[in-house]
Amino acid sequence: MSALLQVRNLVTEFGGGKGQPGTRAVNDVSFSVERGRVLGLVGESGSGKSVTGFSIIRLLERPGRIAAGEIFFDGVDISRNSEEEMRRLRGKRIAMVFQDPTMTLNPVLSVGTQMIEAVLAHESVSKEAARQRARDALGLVGIPSPEERLAAYPHQFSGGMRQRVAIAIALLHKPDLIIADEPTTALDVTIQSQIIAEFQKLTEEARTAVIWVTHDLAIVSRLADDIAVMYAGRLVETGPVSEVLNDPRHPYTAGLIASVPSQNHRGERLHQINGMTPALNRLPQGCSFRTRCERADDGCLVMPELALAGERSFRCIHPVTKVSAS
Amino acid sequence: MVTSIIRRLIQAVFVVVAMTVIVFIGVNVIGNPVDILINPDANQAERARVIAHYGLDQPLWRQYLLFLQGLLHGDFGNSFVYGRPAMGLILERLPATLELAISALAIALVFGLPLGLYAGLYPNRVSSKLIMSGSILGFSLPTFWVGLMLIMVFSVELGWLPTNGRGPTLELFGVRWSFLTGEGLRHLLLPAFNLALFKTSLILRLTRAGVQEVLPQDYVKFARAKGLRERRVIAVHVLKNLMIPVVTIIGLEFGSLIAFSVVTESIFAWPGMGKLIIDSINLLDRPVIVAYLMMMVLLFVVLNFIIDVCYTILDPRVRLDSKA
Ligand SMILES: Nc1ncnc2c1ncn2[C@@H]1O[C@H](COP(=O)(O)OP(=O)(O)OP(=O)(O)O)[C@@H](O)[C@H]1O
Ligand code: SF4
Ligand SMILES: [Mg+2]
């Protein structure tokens, strides 16, 4: 069985066009997600995680555009879909939860209106039935007294509550794929656990596939089946979560893992990756990570190909091995 | 909601009282009506009689109290020029001006909103650029010149539309209106367009700016991510946010429409308040000036009140803040 979502050599550019290359926020990215599985997409700020998500659901802001590649969803290349075909997928089969919950809900419309319209966009049910669905969805994400909350406006909710409303909206149609862009960053730990449990249930029972974008490796290790590490628009390492986290190959992945506090012993200095994320239009020649990499040498002046090893892949000519890392 | 309305009403009363003082003092400082009212050849006794008749010999504070007392009875005194109640004169002319202003506002909305929306949604199209350039013309061409051009083209050259007056009117709710008769409507068309030109440009540009501010917001993107039809995204999510600044401006500009109607009324010989007030100022016809100014105060207070109510309906954040 082929994967539900297969992204192949995706390139997303801002600006450019007509032979002119733009800024490549997503560069030659390939990955796949199967039904009922969770892919953790990690990487530093600006590495292109959100742009990848918006490319899949085709909601890139101008001047962003998909410059190359294919996005197969349930066997169809949706990167070539018409706008109306995309609309019918959005919210219904592919849902997205945005990164910043403060502005995802329209300030002048009640939460109920915004949920009911989401139901009615894809199903011709009565308004009362849609309302019932909205109420249930709010209850599902742990919002107390959902009936009253439907009449409330976004500014009457805290940031965390708003994010839960956004998640409830994403769950309304039991989509095949949810792109969750740092959905729990704004939430406190107990609610975070609750939401994660909700997603786990969803993947098990409804076989929903999830792309979970995050900085938080702890969440990835709890929730995700696979991990994809992004750096400066490219995937630098992919594979099953446990293998990658226990035995990273790419120096960047190793750096990320080493900088998680719980990975260190008490009193030991926290490891940090040297330097700053380079600007996309001023990437170093060859491997993008070269200027920050301790293992770099002249061989890294050429962009390394993605090396495949079983279920895993990495983009590095001097990969870390468990022996050399410890 | 109710408390906020009551609070607004009390504020409005204060505004009106404050304005009576300002208006009263203002008109007492601008020249001496005695000079106009009285024939320079009149003798001393004659002078005194006229002054006493109009209460101009009383101390200022007494004049103010008399003035207030009159106000409460809707009595602004008789016009020095026409010898008839000043408020009656204003009220006679009010419908003509209101009709002109409302028509102009309607035209400005009917053209400004959709064109602004279009130019905001498709900023790179040639047609959008044409619309925006056109709106600059609408801003910068002087009203009187456009009025004259309209007369030249549509009345003199083409002979399609009449140039002056209100034409036949029909009575509705005890007031005479031009728009109820076909011929009256034809009379209304040119002056209304003339007056609307500037406001159309204003609403157009405001709408476009609003669209460009709202479109990149996350909530618009999220509305699309829910799979809403583009029509609903624009008509509900974008437009509802857009209406907040537009309603504010419309309310405020309606007042200035009435004020600016002076020029248009003069060019098209439209028998409204604008013409009357210009004549009254020239002749220092104090009761009429005062009645006009108080009418304007009342109008603005009522307008602001309506804007506030619209605001509360449109913006839930205001609604709750006033409750708290
Ligand atoms: N509207 C835009 N116009 C131009 N460039 C953009 C735009 N949006 C994103 N980019 C570029 O794409 C790159 C990737 O952005 P993206 O939002 O995907 O990062 P991210 O990995 O989600 O980071 P974060 O963790 O901060 O959310 C950024 O470096 C930015 O330069
Ligand atoms: S290719 Fe070279 S520079 Fe790039 S990560 Fe590997 S060792 Fe470092
Ligand atoms: Mg992001």
Automatic annotation (TrEMBL), chain A:
Coarse class of the protein's main subcellular location: membrane
SMART domains: AAA (SM00382)
UniProt keyword annotations, A-Z: ATP-binding, Cell membrane, Membrane, Nucleotide-binding, Transport
Record InterPro entries: AAA+_ATPase (IPR003593), ABC_Ni/Peptide_Import (IPR050388), ABC_transporter-like_ATP-bd (IPR003439), ABC_transporter-like_CS (IPR017871), Oligopep_ABC_C (IPR013563), P-loop_NTPase (IPR027417)
Domain ABC transporter, chain residue ranges per copy: 5-257
Topology relative to the membrane: Peripheral membrane protein
Subcellular location: Cell inner membrane
One Pfam family linked to the record: oligo_HPY
An example Gene Ontology molecular-function term: ATP binding
Family: Belongs to the ABC transporter superfamily.
Protein name: ABC transporter ATP-binding protein
